[in-house]
């Protein structure tokens, strides 16, 4: 997907506001009676997940939510049900449908991978669908205890999976893998790279997973040097984004380069270039560069830097 210069100027915030579409109501997770009653209440909303896909309206710009009456026939066969929280006085659950069955909700909308439509959603729907998909993935991957291999069962409203082996009894909690993502800046230029699997025109920020025993700042410096051979002077935290593909937490930074000679050290990148704002504008106009989707923190990092240009240089 390609983006015009106008998209850079327009997307200054999207995923990084201190905002949540619901209240998680952690204390309700222990109240099994309350949770059971919510499953049949008229004000309850259900977000269905099937084969790690979300259900959306045909535009597609809105998440499909089901009522308690609509979801009632699906509850007995659900692979997992997770209490996500409350909004507007009603409970919100995610429900994972059996992947082997024929689509039971064909008339309600279309199933799509969030990677393919995430930039068309508002921030509230994106947050909700990411939340539901993340738990669907975790439940699917934690059916058996990683300590003894026994089956696990869902407890605490779907937020814990408990080992059924009495001699083990370990509780398993969801995990997010921390990863850094960084826009490196040198004077009036930013550094963008392209991975081998991406289309020829696709460029983005640098990113990588943190390693055990290192700080976030150390991970930023290591990843930038490993991928592009650039030493950093400093790094400034920008914001974070839950990224459920499959279970990452992206920690975003702007970093100042100490050196500017690019050397692709570890083979992660197929290409990397420094761009001024004018060069990036020209590359977007000529379709020789495409940016990551607008809902991603990588896009927002680039947009925030781009919009620091003097007024006369804005698009």
What does this structure look like?
- By secondary structure, the protein is of the alpha+beta class.
- It folds into two domains: 147 residues, Alpha-Beta Complex (Nucleoside Triphosphate Pyrophosphohydrolase); 157 residues, Nucleoside Triphosphate Pyrophosphohydrolase, CATH 3.90.79.20.
- It is 23% helix and 29% strand.
- Strands 9, 10, 11, 12, 13 and 14 form a six-stranded mixed β-sheet that branches.
- The longest helix has 19 residues.
- The chain is globular.
- The N terminus and C terminus are likely disordered.
Oligomer class: single chain
Q: Evaluate the radius of gyration.
A: 22 Å
CATH class of the largest domain: Alpha Beta
Number of domains: 2
Give a quick set of tags describing it.
Nucleoside Triphosphate Pyrophosphohydrolase; five-stranded mixed sheet; 315 residues; alpha+beta; 8 helices; globular; disordered N terminus; 14 strands; six-stranded mixed sheet
Q: Which helices and strands, and how do they pair?
A:
Blueprint: H1 5-10, H2 32-38, E1 45-50, E2 53-56, H3 68-71, E3 80-87, E4 90-97, E5 110-112, H4 114-117, H5 123-141, E6 152-155, E7 160-163, E8 171-172, E9 177-186, E10 189-195, E11 206-209, H6 216-228, E12 232-243, E13 248-257, E14 269-276, H7 277-285, H8 297-306
Parallel strand pairs: 1-4, 9-13
Antiparallel strand pairs: 1-2, 2-5, 3-4, 6-7, 7-8, 9-10, 9-11, 10-14, 12-13
Describe the structure concisely.
By secondary structure, the chain is an alpha+beta fold.
């Amino acid at each position: 997907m390609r983006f015009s210069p106008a998209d850079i100027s327009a997307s200054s915030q999207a995923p990084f506001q201190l905002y949540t579409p619901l209240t998680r109501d952690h204390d309700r997770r222990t109240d099994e009676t309350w949770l059971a009653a919510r499953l049949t209440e008229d004000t309850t909303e259900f977000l269905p997940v099937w084969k790690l896909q979300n259900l959306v309206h045909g535009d597609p710009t809105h998440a499909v939510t089901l009522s308690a009456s609509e979801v009632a026939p699906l509850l007995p066969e659900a692979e997992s049900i997770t209490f996500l929280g409350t909004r507007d006085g009603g409970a919100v659950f995610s429900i994972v449908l059996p992947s082997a069955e024929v689509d039971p909700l064909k008339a309600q909308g279309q199933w799509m991978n969030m990677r393919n439509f995430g930039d068309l959603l508002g921030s509230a729907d994106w947050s909700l669908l990411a939340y539901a998909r993340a738990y669907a993935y975790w439940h699917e991957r934690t059916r058996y205890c990683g300590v003894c291999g026994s089956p696990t069962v869902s407890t605490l409203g779907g937020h814990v999976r408990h080992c059924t082996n009495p001699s083990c009894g370990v509780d398993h909690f969801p995990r997010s893998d921390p990863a850094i993502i960084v826009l490196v800046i040198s004077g009036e230029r930013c550094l963008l790279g392209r991975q081998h699997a991406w289309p020829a025109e696709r460029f983005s920020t640098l990113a990588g997973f943190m390693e055990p025993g290192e700080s976030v700042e150390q991970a930023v410096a290591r990843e930038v040097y490993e991928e592009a051979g650039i030493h950093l002077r400093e790094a400034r935290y920008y914001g974070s984004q839950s990224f459920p593909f499959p279970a990452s937490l992206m920690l975003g930074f702007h970093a100042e380069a100490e050196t500017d000679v690019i050397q692709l050290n570890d083979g992660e990148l197929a290409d990397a270039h420094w761009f001024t704002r004018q060069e990036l504008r020209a590359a977007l106009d000529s379709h020789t560069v495409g940016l990551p989707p607008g809902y991603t923190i990588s896009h927002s990092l680039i947009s925030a830097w781009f919009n620091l240009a003097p007024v006369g240089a804005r698009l």
